[in-house]
Amino acid sequence: MKKIAVVYISLTGNTEAMADIVISALKDRCSLDIFDLAAEDFTSSEGYDAIAFGCPAMGQEVLEEDTFEPAFSALESQLSGKKIALFGSYGWGDGEWMRSWADRCLADGACLVCDPVIAQEAPDDAAAAELKALSEALLA
After folding, report:
1. What local confidence, expressed as pLDDT, does residue 68 receive?
2. Of 50, 71, 96, 101, whose CA is between 20 and 30 Å from 57?
3. Dist CA 13 CA 7 (whole Å)
4. Which residue ranges of the chain lie beneath pLDDT 50?
5. What is the reported pTM?
6. Nearest CA among 82, 76, 83 for reference residue 108
7. Is residue 52 within 8 Å of 5, Cβ to Cβ?
């Protein structure tokens, strides 16, 4: 059975709603660990077959700077060859933060299992379907 982590932060509840869709699609189908970075740390990717990272866009379309960015930066050296997926919500802009984040992960040597999933505000039906597909890609 695959071991998968879902690691996210949510400030308004939108990215948490996205994480909940991923978690629901994965539960009972893998060994699943969930890390809400607002409440707990995730310091090592070791032992995980795949990781889903979720972070909203902040400010000038960047990752949440106080908690998520430092935690993710500390993990980057562990991502080479790791299967990962990215998701997050935004309030304005065009998704630049996600494109930059995906490029950064690829530069780290991570293996993106699918295109990142973004939702403007709360996830709609289309985003929910993409998140379910993201979950399937993590299990593959």
Report:
1. 97
2. 50
3. 14
4. none
5. 0.97
6. 76
7. yes
Q: What is the 3-state secondary structure (H, E, C) of 34-103?
A: EEECCCCCCCCCCCCCEEEEECCEECCCEECCCCHHHHHHHHHHHCCCCEEEEEEEECCCCCHHHHHHHH
Can you give the pLDDT at residue 21? 98
Token pair for residue 26? 């994965």
- Cα separation, 92 vs 40, in Å, equals 28
Q: Rounded mean pLDDT of the chain?
A: 97
Give the chain's end-to-end CA distance (angstroms, integer): 11
Please enumerate in sequence order all residues whose Cβ is within 8 A of that of 124, keeping only pairs 6 or more positions apart, or say none: none
Determine whether 38 is exposed, middle or buried from the number of CB atoms within 10 Å of its CB (0-12, 13-18, 19+).
middle
On the CB side of 29, how many CA atoms lie within 13 Å of its CA? 13
92, 109, 123 from 52: Cα distances, Å = 23, 16, 16
Residue-wise pLDDT for 20-34, tens only, equals 999 999 999 999 999
Confidence at residue 60, expressed as pLDDT on a 0 to 100 scale: 84
Please provide residue 22's backbone torsions phi and psi, each rounded to the nearest 5 degrees. -60, -45
